[in-house]
Design brief:
Layout: E1 2-3, E2 60-62, H1 116-138, E3 149-152, H2 171-175, E4 179-182, E5 187-191, H3 197-205, H4 208-225, H5 235-254, H6 265-277, H7 295-308, H8 331-336, H9 349-364, E6 376-380, E7 399-402, E8 407-411, H10 412-422, H11 425-442, H12 449-466, E9 497-498, H13 503-514, H14 527-540
Parallel strand pairs: 3-5, 6-8
Antiparallel strand pairs: 1-9, 2-4, 4-5, 7-8
Helix pairs in contact: 1-4, 4-5, 5-7, 6-7, 9-11, 10-11, 11-12, 11-13, 12-14, 13-14
């Protein structure tokens, strides 16, 4: 985040990692991991990194640049997610799909891997699913892949076809992409070698995440069949729909509609993490060649498909979901990386977040929270420093509110840890949730339990929307007559904070850390539920929260 008086701030950059939740940091060249950026007053976007590939290229992939920065960083989840399935669905297939042993061309010398049977079952189910649902959704007969799904590895001597750059695809070529779909020959290939991106993915996340990758690549095959690839669309449009299609298949599997393909709570959480970790580099333009979108965008597209099925993905080619801009907006922003200083002075993080939250819930939301009483933030290093008869919140989570004293006690070691891991909006998100809870308590809200926690998440999203600056068609900040940035929703002059584009991704990273271990725990909401609620407020405003 950034204060409105940006010229005097001195932010610093902390590169985020979500590795410790399952122990692996997934990095991609065209979908790399990067940290939060701060919006600054500038009329010139500075692009810090270019993405590669575009919708005209024959290859659509998730690529691995071999950068393992941050891979050893550890994040401490509240609880290890239980490895259990979702509640049984209302209906299940009467005849479970039997794995086709020829669904994947494993080649002539493949080392046996634990994931092989799962991937055979997953890909068999993807094609069975599309055989049922493709024509009703897209209005065309379903045609399976004309080519194969090829597993590539160093020992393989059976050739893998080339994709416009030669007769064959070498293993070295394949490792640059991890997985790709090729319209020339209508085939998919993936890296099955030791130590590659997908091997690490499977070892740390489980084989279900590779199933997501293959479903994403089949999403591009769908686009070839409906003529979308021939339309020379921006890459972000086709990637967004492919993320949605992957989510639709994951939702099917998680609901038990693919009995041969286990898909547990752990797999859902891992899928969200993977989507975040393969976002575009901060500083790039998601609408440019090779753009895939921010972590917030990619998770959003995945959730649309997961919740609504394949039919919800069909419109995204002509009516894409809104995007989060990632480009740096000034030279200072580029040099600093975009995080406000962790501190309590006026232009440090809590120095401008606290008055902004007080103004949002007090003045801007005066109709909804007419008697909101402002809170003061008090830094602490131990729970013993909290002096409150009726504390609201858990100190270990980062913030405890004491309404009778008008104080929010901050667990600065915990908030500082999250700041170091993800960026400045990790503590900002927790602060916003605490203020939302205070506001609900002050109006005697009757909402309780998990629903109340999700309502708070939505209100945090509404606060984010009200502090998000608008950009014009050329990427410049839109300013009012006083030269101040115009935000997505009108706000009072007392408001002093501006949302950084990658703050949204930092928020959902935090939601994954603090969310319930399973969807049936029903305490604060699962990561999926919390992200869904936060996105609702962010995209539609606080009035959408009910």
């Amino acid at each position: 985040m950034a204060p409105r008086t940006i010229d005097t701030m001195n932010p610093r950059r902390i590169s985020p990692a979500l590795a410790g939740l399952i122990g692996f940091s997934l990095l991609a060249a065209a979908c790399g991991v990067d940290a939060s950026i701060a919006v600054e007053r500038s009329d010139q976007i500075i692009t810090a990194a270019d993405t590669t590939g575009n919708a005209d290229d024959p290859v659509f992939s998730e690529s691995d640049d071999g950068d393992d920065s941050g891979a050893t960083t550890t994040v401490e989840p509240a609880d290890e997610p239980a490895d259990e399935p979702f509640d049984p669905p209302a209906t299940v297939p009467s005849d479970p799909v039997v794995s086709d042993p020829n669904a994947i061309d494993f080649g002539d010398a493949k080392p046996v891997r634990d994931r092989d049977d799962y991937l055979l079952a997953a890909f068999t189910d993807v094609e069975a699913w599309l055989a049922e649902e493709f024509e009703p959704v897209f209005g065309l007969p379903f045609i399976p892949l004309e080519g194969e799904v090829y597993a590539g590895y160093p020992e393989r001597t059976d050739p893998i076809p080339g994709c416009g750059n030669g007769e064959f695809t070498s293993y070295d070529d394949l490792t640059q992409f991890a997985a790709f779909y090729c319209p020339i020959g209508d085939f998919i290939a993936y890296d099955d070698g030791d130590g590659g991106l997908l091997d690490r993915l499977s070892d740390e996340y489980g084989p279900a995440t590779i199933g997501i990758v293959l479903a994403h690549e089949y999403g591009h095959a769908i686009q070839q069949r409906i003529g979308a690839l021939a339309r020379r669309l921006p890459t972000i449009v086709t990637e967004q729909q492919a993320d949605c299609i992957a989510g639709a298949w994951a939702g099917r599997a998680a609901a038990g509609l693919a009995p041969a393909v286990p898909f547990t709570e752990t797999d859902v959480r891992a899928s969200l993490i993977a989507m975040i970790q393969v976002q575009d580099p901060v500083g790039s333009d998601p609408t440019g060649p090779g753009g895939h979108g921010s972590g917030f965008d990619r998770v959003g597209a995945f959730q649309v498909g997961f919740d609504g099925g394949l039919a919800t993905c069909e419109p995204l080619i002509d009516d894409p979901l809104p995007l989060t801009p990632l480009a740096f907006l000034s030279q200072q922003d580029l040099l600093s990386g975009g995080n406000a200083v962790f501190g309590f002075e006026d232009e440090e993080l809590f120095g401008f977040l606290v008055p902004d939250l007080n103004a949002f819930f007090g003045i801007d939301q005066g109709v909804r929270f007419p008697d909101f009483e402002a809170l003061a933030a008090v830094p602490t290093t131990s729970a013993s420093e909290v002096d409150c008869a009726s504390p609201i919140g858990d100190y270990d989570d980062g913030v405890v509110v004491c309404l009778d004293k008008g104080i929010a006690y901050l667990n600065t070691p915990r908030l500082g840890f999250l700041y170091e891991e993800f960026g400045d909006f990790a503590p900002g998100y927790l602060l916003g949730a605490a203020w939302a809870e205070a506001a609900l308590t002050q109006v005697d809200s009757t909402t309780t339990g998990e629903d109340r926690q999700l309502l708070a998440d939505c209100l945090v999203g509404g606060w984010v929307r009200s502090a998000t600056p608008l950009l014009d068609d050329f990427g410049n900040l839109v300013r009012d007559a006083n030269g101040d940035p115009v935000t997505a929703e009108p706000r009072t002059a007392e408001r002093g904070a501006l949302i950084s584009p990658n703050d949204l991704t930092e928020a959902i990273q935090t939601a994954i850390v603090i969310g319930d271990p399973t969807s049936s725990t029903d305490v604060v909401g699962s990561p999926f539920e919390k992200i869904d609620a936060f996105r609702l407020g962010t995209l539609e405003g606080a009035n959408a929260c009910s």
